[in-house]
Amino acid sequence: MPDVTKTDVKTGRVDPVGGAPAVPPVESKPEKTRSLWGDAWADLRRSWIFIISSVLIFFLLLITFFPGWFTSAEPILGDLSKHYLQKPKLGDVGSADWLGYDQQGRSVYARVIYGTRASIAVGFGTTILVTLVGSLVGMIAGYFGGIVDSILSRLADVFFGIPFMLGTMVVLNSFPERTAWVVIGALGFFGWTQISRVMRGAVITTKQADYVQAAKALGASTPRIMFRHILPNTLAPVIVVATISLGVYIAAEATLSFLGLGLSGVSWGNDISDGGASIRVAQWIMLYPSIMLSITVLAFIMLGEAVRNALDPKMR
Question: What pTM, to 2 d.p., does this model score?
């Protein structure tokens, strides 16, 4: 005999008479929408370029903060009587003898490890400085427009017209002692113009949005509109440019050190310059700092490309 059912008039649920209670209907959960940053992170996790560059940068940061984990040798102490231009012992991985010694009897491996700290510090410091200055100038110029935009844009054009490396060399040449802070200040003094232009264009586009106009109509203050509504929606292109520029600033610091105008201490550029005098008989002095510099610059450029592909909707 077939089961007898009854229907609830209010809910429309069909219940068997005298049987087990009915199973309530399954409600489907609405899909949660992701923001631009959520979509970008999902794309980055699937990008092999991002994964490889992140692993390399993580390894470089470990060397920067904990150089003693990788070598116990001192980068500035040499022994000419024992280690003058001693050839590398590639079988002794991680030892002071691994990559050979330079003209002053100093371990090339130790200098490569400690040179990482100088290059990463200058790269990150310069990037932070130019991002802050360029973003602030570009935001003010793009938001206020008019005479303010004209003055700041012409100022940026003046700095943009000065050759970056030439201007930095002139500034650094006036300092007898070139510490990391001096190099960061010189590179940042001429490097903020690109981010300023990117931020200005993004602000001009964003300030026409409906939510910005609504905030103005509700009487929100100018700083609140700029930093609460406009800034979060204009960071994507700035982050892309800053990430790629970080590798460029590391290469610029090495170039200045190679020319004798960079850091006064341990630096890849200084070692590459010193190795040039003995390149015929001791190629390893120049070779290994050059390889480390190339890997570092490539890692940050790859990271910037991955971030650009993730944040630019046109690249999807």
Answer: 0.79
